[in-house]
Amino acid sequence: MTGRNLPPLSLHVPEPAFRPGDPVDYSSFEMPVAGAVARPSIDAPTSALRDMSYAMIRVLDDEGRAQGPWDPRLAPETLLKMLYGMALTRAFDDRLYRAQRQGKTSFYMKCKGEEATSVAAAHALDYDDMLFPSYRQQGLLIARDWSIVDMINQIYSNRADRLKGRQLPIMYSVRAANFFSISGNLTTQYPQAVGWAMASAARGDTRIAAAWCGEGSTAEGDFHSAMTFASVYRAPVILNVINNQWAISSFSGFAGAEATTFAARSIGYGIAGLRVDGNDALAVYAATQWAADRARGNHGPTLIEHFTYRAEGHSTSDDPSKYRSADESVKWPLGDPIARLKKHVIALGIWDEERHEAMDREVAEAVRAAQKEAEKNGILQDGLKQSFDSMFEDVFEDMPWHLREQQRQMLAERKAAGI
Amino acid sequence: MSQADAAAGETRTMNMVQAINSALDAAMARDEGIVVLGEDVGFFGGVFKATEGLQKKYGKTRVFDTPISENGIVGVAVGMATYGLRPVPEIQFADYIYPGLDQLVSEAARLRYRSAGEYTAPITVRTPFGGGIFGGQTHSQSPEALFTHVAGLTTVIPSNPYDAKGLLIAAIEDNDPVIFFEPKRIYNGPFDGHYDRPVSPWSKFPESAVPDGYFTVPLGKAKVVRNGEDVTILAYGTMVHVALGVIAECGIDAELIDLRTLVPLDMETIETSVKKTGRCVIVHEATKTGGFGAELSALVQEHCFHSLEAPVERVTGWDTPYPHSLEWAYFPGPVRLTEALKRVMQD
């Protein structure tokens, strides 16, 4: 257009490998070998950790055996507790997804296929470590044995909802479980987690913080700010990126995955980075434990990329068959986290098909019973379960005159209108 | 004016920067959960010296420099507050606060509400604002209306050293987020808007007598700076002094109210005054459209309609970015306020 004798520039707009109807072929995916990645000492300088960002920590092999130096050598009861937590999380998702479809609430988000990234991580942390989740970490609460009745009350915005019906379903807040209030604005929890960790360090505490975000929202400025602050102050924090390949309909390429890994974001900031098979509960546990020990030893923060796959839609509001191939989930080369841990505990001889089936029945029944219990407090569509004037509470600690006036006005108008 | 009790200690002469520094010192001495963070606030003591000496006194884990990231500064402050601390971040200029806006608007302001009180964000964001210093468009803005519009934020603007100290301590002790705008044009002395005249230092004014120790000035309470019968002037920050200068020269018996806190607003004081005078002129440096003056004007109309004898006037900055060389044409100074008062008095 300028008339200059130069080749025209071209804009690269990423495109995923497979769209609806496309046959899925993962043959170009080089399966990292379980047990092949070395386990550096927790105080290793970040300069010695660079390769970790491009490798992938895997512990469970195809036969369900634990391999290599990252095997966390967990006690049988811990393994089975993690298996139970993942199964309960999946059963919870199935039932609450259906509850939304039945019109009992407005919204739901499943974490199918990603259960290990929450449940196994929670097991590797201490209960008093502070969790700053995104919206798909229900497994953290379940792993911390939080009441699923309480979670369903929140999802229904019913009269027992501790959050007074103010939050979108699944945006839990559970201070008693050291679980931060979930924000719908993405990655805002990242600098907050870093700040919490800085405060813990400044006060000579021993507790650490952990945050989760999706690969898509690593593009937010908050991610960069958090990484910078975490590096500068060597904050005792674990920053987890759940790379589930999809951000609603945008594949990971729109967050930069064509160019590098998400773990490699750590290198520029000079913080430790690990990349793990997010469908391998033992690898998630081991990486989290390593990062927690590193943080507790004052060796600084760790960024962990959990390589996984979002097996369902983003939420109840989208249909993934409209933007990606249904085959992707079926052929995902890293398998299913529950099936893989199940295979491992069976191989260890501490589990069998019969007990697994019994467990599946047990978790389904537990969720069913919890749902029934929660529904005694109402469902969203029953009509409002909170008093109208509660809308004005908690904006400030003390209600200022203008809110009191608006509260009075609302009630007076309703009365005048005869409602 | 000083009603501080004995605990407030000896009174010293302070300018506004010294008063703010003294407020931080007094608050930090009482509560070890208070931490100060921001660009250049540590060893250097801040570009305006508001945090001078605090790092030496309280240590690097309570007073520390940050990366140049307002988003990060506010974000980590919210996280520190969640831990149980009481952070007082400094944003070097209010003009730089926008990268931190999401953390203020979507997080700090709503945390108590969305968690039904499980989590709160008792942070006080201090930031110098306003023009009159030849700072151009990136060192002169008055963005208070962006914050007064947000449910859950308290917005405070002092106009003198005594109030600056008392209000800042009250803001820090408040259990919700507070935006504390410091009118930097009057850090060293009150400014009547006559940029061509010499400015007197705060030491020549009674508001510079500030108790050395702890005291508070309550949030949400305006101050009647001057009693008058003809017209009510609503002002805050630098504009309080511009108004005082105009009143002294124009011969109109105006009642001047320094709002001090914009949200929650002291409507009672405003209402009492306007019902008495029947006229109201609002003055602020920020742009006009959607400015806080629009809210004030609406409230005066709602609360005092039957007492009004003239339309409510707004004297504000023009709806342009803050210009550099034309600063004094932009600044709503004595000429414009005088004209507005004359118009209002004619009706």
Question: What are the key terms here?
Answer:
heterodimer, A: 419 residues, alpha/beta, Rossmann fold, 2 domains, five-stranded parallel sheet, two-stranded antiparallel ribbon, 12 helices, globular, B: Rossmann fold, five-stranded mixed sheet
Oligomer: heterodimer
- Could you name the ranges of chain A where pLDDT drops below 50 across 5 or more consecutive residues? none
Per CATH, the architecture of the largest domain in chain B is: 3-Layer(aba) Sandwich
The CATH architecture of the largest domain in chain A: 3-Layer(aba) Sandwich
- Determine and state the CATH class of the largest domain in chain A: Alpha Beta
Number of domains of chain A: 2
Query: What is the number of independent domains of chain B?
Result: 2
Element order of chain B: H for helix, E for strand: EHEHEHEHHEHEHEEEEHEEHEHEHH
State the CATH topology of the largest domain in chain B.
Answer: Rossmann fold
How are the strands ordered across the major sheet of chain B? 9-11-10-13-14
Q: Count the DSSP helices of chain A.
A: 12
Tell me briefly what this model is:
The complex is a heterodimer of chains A (419) and B (347). With 419 residues, chain A is an alpha/beta fold.
Notes on the protein architecture:
The complex is a heterodimer of chains A (419) and B (347). Chain A is of the alpha/beta class and 419 residues long. Chain A has two domains: 46-382, Thiamin diphosphate (ThDP)-binding fold, Pyr/PP domains (Rossmann fold, 3-Layer(aba) Sandwich); 387-419, no CATH class. Helices cover 37% and strands 8% of the residues of chain A. Chain A has twelve helices and seven strands. Chain A has helices at residues 76-101, 115-124, 138-143, 148-156, 189-202, 221-232, 265-269, 281-296, 327-331, 337-347, 353-375, 401-416; strands spanning 130-132, 209-214, 237-243, 246-247, 250-251, 272-277, 302-307. In chain A, the strands form two sheets. In chain A, strands 1-2-3-7-6 form a five-stranded parallel β-sheet, with helices on both faces. In chain A, helix 1 (76-101) crosses helix 11 (353-375), helix 2 (115-124) crosses helix 8 (281-296) and helix 5 (189-202) packs parallel to helix 6 (221-232). The longest helix of chain A has 26 residues, at 76-101. Chain A is globular, with a radius of gyration of 23 Å. The model of chain A has no long low-confidence stretch (mean pLDDT 96). Chain B has 347 residues and is of the alpha/beta class. Chain B folds into two domains: 11-211, Thiamin diphosphate (ThDP)-binding fold, Pyr/PP domains (Rossmann fold), CATH 3.40.50; 223-346, Rossmann fold, CATH 3.40.50.920. Chain B has helices at residues 16-30, 54-58, 70-83, 101-108, 111-114, 144-148, 161-173, 238-250, 267-277, 292-304, 327-330, 334-346; strands at 11-13, 34-38, 63-65, 86-90, 124-129, 154-156, 178-183, 209-211, 223-226, 231-235, 254-258, 261-263, 280-287, 313-317. Chain B has a five-stranded mixed β-sheet with strand order 9-11-10-13-14, with helices on both faces. In chain B, strand 6, helix 7 (161-173) and strand 7 (178-183) form a beta-alpha-beta unit. In chain B, helix 8 packs across helix 12 and helix 9 packs across helix 10 (292-304). Chain B is globular, with a radius of gyration of 19 Å. In chain B, 59% of the residues are buried. Chains A and B meet through helix 5 and helix 6 of A and helix 3, helix 4 and helix 5 of B.
